[in-house]
Amino acid sequence: MSLPVxxxxxxxxxxxxLDLGAVLPCTAEVKDGHLFIGGVDMVTLAHDMQTAxxxxxxxxxxxxxxxxxxxxxxxxxxxxxxxxxxxxxxIAMCKIVDEEGCCLDVSSGGELAFARAAGFPTDRIFAHGNxxxxxxxxxxxxxxxxxxxxxxxxxxxxxxxxxxxxxMVQSVLIRVTPGVxxxxxxxxxxxxxxxxxxxxxxDGLAMxxxxxxxxxxxxxFAGLHMHIGSQIFALNSFAKAIExxxxxxxxxxxxxxxxxxxxDTGGGLGIAYGAPDQPSSxxxxxxxxxxxxxAHCEDHGLPVPRIMVEPGRSIVANAGxxxxxxxxxxxxxxxxxxxxxxxxxxxxxxTALYDARYxxxxxxxxxxxxxxxxxxxxxxxxxxxxxVYDTPLQPAEVGDIVCVFxxxxxxxxxxxxxxxxxxxxxxxxxxxVARLIVRRETYDDLLKCEIF
Length: 452
Ligand SMILES: Cc1ncc(COP(=O)(O)O)c(C=O)c1O
Known about the structure:
The chain has two domains: 17-57 and 317-447, Beta Barrel (Lyase, Ornithine Decarboxylase, Chain A, domain 1); 59-316, TIM Barrel (Alpha-Beta Barrel). 29% of the residues lie in helices and 24% in strands. The protein has twelve helices and 21 strands. The chain has helices spanning 42-48, 58-73, 91-99, 109-117, 134-143, 153-165, 205-215, 235-256, 282-300, 313-316, 350-354, 443-447, and strands at 29-31, 34-37, 40-41, 53-57, 79-84, 103-106, 125-127, 147-150, 170-177, 199-200, 219-225, 262-264, 306-309, 320-332, 336-341, 360-362, 372-377, 386-393, 401-405, 425-430, 433-438. It is globular and about 70 Å long.
């Protein structure tokens, strides 16, 4: 069967690993032909642990969290950074987020359970989801989460009822869709008017939600939330949405007299997946978000609220790589060469889902030039089970360790057990030490929910 989409012709680029620049984790180095991350030899690690294996660079994660704190608070002291746990969540990750003084966004009861198991302070948790179940809302209230980000009228009523039953008041943010179409893949645009998320500004839906929040007992209207999409390169998409939402804050004051004390502008900053990608820096992003909010508030004579940003991908994506072992190399003359590895769409669905592109290298040939063009295929029963289509790579042989970069976000968290594949383990590397933070699944794990 032919590949589903016509693709541009690709030539070898003769790059060696370190030429891949911004795609790499910040501690990547090459010694004696081997790729090292966090001071750990990826080839030895792959041989010691089983592949497929996710590897996360702790220094990179901490640097990104610190950069967000530094470059947002540089412009306004009252800013919080909320890590979006959906990008990659584990107990170790929750602890790092806590240690760095950031907040945490959870988008299901399961993510809340992880945060609680990690001992994350619940008052710094933001609970998301466009259709939280009543059970999830109960769990959020009982845990004492800091804010629930409200997505529907039904949810407002449910929170009010549950809060009254518990004799408490729950602080909420109202999620607004500002009607801005972000410059990104349509599957990850969320701020347009036609979206399953949030309340639109047209037809007064968002204003009605705020009026309802203000009148309902058990609810404290703390402010607004928006998230216009993910993997966004154009900062003017954020700027446009901020202009719209601050204007709306003014409307709220005029119509209800209520103040928006908090404004959460969501996540979405893009990252480099491919060598040509040139995303904006956290420093540039922080300036646009915070300065624009301040400037528009000043124009409208509004007090500047507590500002929150909610990054996921830009914290963890480039920190993570996936290691695989080459099992077969199949050349179809005049067509293409398939290098098949011991993972695939179960550990990285993004290529099948979004036609995502990645940069690979061979970790045991990291100083060699990528002189061939191959397609890196997975081991699953789907033609679309491809990790990277037509990519430059060093000449691949059976037993080589392929390292795919920028897989730290939305890979492990979107992984599956299709074909009853066990999910890979996750190793955190730092200062020459490899720490297993999520063990590889076993067949017993796969069988544990079966009723015999
Ligand atoms: C509400 C919300 N906040 C934050 C994020 C994180 O976005 P990103 O990983 O692009 O920074 C998402 C991603 O889908 C989201 O839905």
